Amino acid sequence: MDIREEALNAHKEHQGKLQVASKMPLKNMHDLSIAYTPGVAEPCKEIALNKDLSFEYTCRGNMIAVISDGTRVLGLGDIGPEAAMPVMEGKSVIYKTFADVDAVPICLGTKDQAKIIETIKLLEPSFAGINLEDFSSPKCYDIEDILKKEMNIPVFHDDQHGTAIAALAGILGALRFVKKDIKNVKIVVNGAGAAGTAIGRILLNAGAENVIMVDMAGALYEGMPGLNRVQAELAKDTNKNKLQGNLA
Question: N or C terminus: fewer CB in 10 A for the chain?
Fold first, then answer.
């Protein structure tokens, strides 16, 4: 079998990659009385007095939501929330396998920015953090910015910051290998979407002084027409000589 066939067979055989498992035993009536009624009322009463105790008495303290609207899935584009589910489920498995963090995949049946923001805000009592995944640009910037301001738990957009962290790590490793300082090298970033702009910004924050961003319209420069607000801000700090043209 090739990768395509093997992936389809594996997902079909297991019906996805996640399952729910109980941390507490339910072998007899006593166990049931502790996990559920009447014992369950005790943590409920404690949390009612102090909401922050939900992080200690429930799974919330180690639970995040991996959320998408399916509008920018991998390299597949706008394929819808149902088709995005295998990716969100896969990310949840990665969290559990490599960090022992429990994660729940959630795919929203709307592309409306206001509805997405309101829905995610309403989920806050159930989770310790939010992982935004595969939202189209430039909508993804506004969703993240607003949620960070209005929620009391961490909000992380993986396509931006996760990719940027990995890219910076690779570049720093390469520079150590060739014995060069990030301040003295020229870096061209091919792509200025959600991931590309975040990579560009983290490179600047790491000390890079000669960064050029390139997208389908060519090299970004300050004052270039057609840029979104994030690209426009980045263009102020990159391509100081205002070079124009395609990647070549």
Answer: C
